Amino acid sequence: MTHTRLRARDIRRLLVALVLGGSAMSIANQACAVYAIAQYGEPKYPADFKHFDYVNPDAPRDGTLVLANPDRLTSFDKFNPFTLRGNPAPGLGLMFESLTTGSSDEVASAYCLLADDIDVAPDGLSTTFHINPQARFSNGDAVTADDVKFSFDTLKSPQALPQFSVYFAQIARAVVVNRLTIRFDYKVATREMPLLAGGIPVFSHKWGMRPDGTRIPFDQLAFEKPIASGDYLIDKYDNGRTISYRRNPNYWGASLPVRVGTHNFARIDYKLYSDAVAKLEAFRAGEYDVLVENVAQSWVRRDVGKRFDNGELIKREFPHHNGAGMQGFFINLRRPIFRDVRVRQALDLALDFQWLNRQLFFDQYKRTGSFFANTDLQATGKPGEGELAILEPLRGQLDPAVFGEMPQQPDTDPPGSLRANLVKARQLLAQAGWTYRNGALRNMNGQPFVFELLDDSGSGTSMEPVAAAFGRNLQKLGITMNFRTADFALVQKRLDAFDFDMTTVRLPDVQVPGTEQLSRFGSKYADQQGSDNLAGVKSPAIDAILRRVVSAQTHEQLADATHALDRVLMNGYYVIPHWYSASHRIAYSRDLGYPAKLPLYFAADEWVLSTWWKKSSANAR
């Protein structure tokens, strides 16, 4: 079992990331006017490439794919995925495109999509994109530089998700050069900037425009259908519970190399279920085609039955090379009881991963020990020379432990034990002023140590036994943890307002860390409601390291800065880390096909949407 719930805000950010086609990307050093750019070295694919290696260019382009809600949302109330208020419909990423898109077998590359030419200034302070004259929106209008500028200005405004103002903070302006040419000017010349600009989702300036020429405010757009350039259109929807997309017969980009072999279904339907149990039963009954299983126990014990036995449903694990991200219990430092790092470390010592892995997870997981696990950006051992060059000027602001060995997560396998971990935890708590008396752990004022672990009700079947085991261990320390579940929408509102003690979150993984780290850990965003800085991290030292991350000019510089960031974050004990798997568990209908070659870096849901196909009944297994 695992719990990979993403907050709605993170889901929307992921949707945008999928539109961008990958992680943060950047440029080669020299000026260029080219079909593609890469962060380090050269793009994998040559100028005359026909399609990506991990697609089937001859895949059938017909049939209907039926999916369930890909996240915890059980209903939707808008078609605008770029604003904070409300819940967006699933699948909206199918409608939006950007100037460039990435490939899934490179960590940082960008190929022309809406653009057909990229020109990076010699000083790196601007990038000019020429728009493909064939590019069209769903209403038949040509995509113009004015539309790109409108999209950028809107997304960077207060009407859009606050993350956009973070991601695009160093893009000073978008300048319309002529009808099909747009230039982005930057405040700083970092390798990330040109590809951030190339990845901006583009939509028509007519989206939200009334017949009389007046405009609906962007943050008030609800069921006004997007006017965008992607190859799917909203066909129908019902009561915020179902939505259907159909391929646009006039889609402009079907023959582009980056689109060949992709989006092979004529229709894509979503059905939203009220909880995980209903969702699983519906899959076993044949109501939809693909189940991406994030719960190990369900994969072993519940994803079974007659239709699995007779081959109508197939289970397979697909390996990937994604960074693991960070899933864990996030601690809200805005609460006074959590401000002492020794308290947070003590809580970490009370989670017995080895017991959980044996008893609940069927030994399917590895313990997460880094914010960049499963990548070469994970810090190990003692700081190297490059890290020390970053850390030494900040020594007076950092815990001395940062300069020692990278902290290891508690272990209860022999010779380790839960008892030994709890003894250490009790010592840390006593040092922080918490002692056991009168039946509870209390501070010097006699107040008991009580807090709430907040989780959404849709995840109760997976996280409740974990919380129960964690709570039992905390009770041995005299700490009372109240586990509370609520509807996802209510939980989301509380997280946006930072009204929680501890909660379960998974930060989406990135292959190349960049500006998204600012929103997660930057001091500026600790008090900005709706930001990704859930823990409330406020550290000038971390801010300084973050600046080194986003300004890295080589992979070596990026690795040193990310290692330093990882080391400081892990020594801050802002999160009680959970676990990860290096494969995607997917159960699917036998009439679906997928390419023989897997991509390296991919999200399971997006991979199915973008490269699978419906087989003919004659060929179905």
TrEMBL record:
It holds the Pfam family SBP_bac_5. Coiled coil: none annotated. Keywords: Signal. Gene3D superfamilies: Dipeptide-binding Protein, Domain 3, Periplasmic binding protein-like II. It comes from the Bacteria. Residues 113-523 form the Solute-binding protein family domain. The keyword Signal applies. Residues 1-28 form the signal peptide. The keyword Signal applies. This is Microcin C transport system substrate-binding protein.
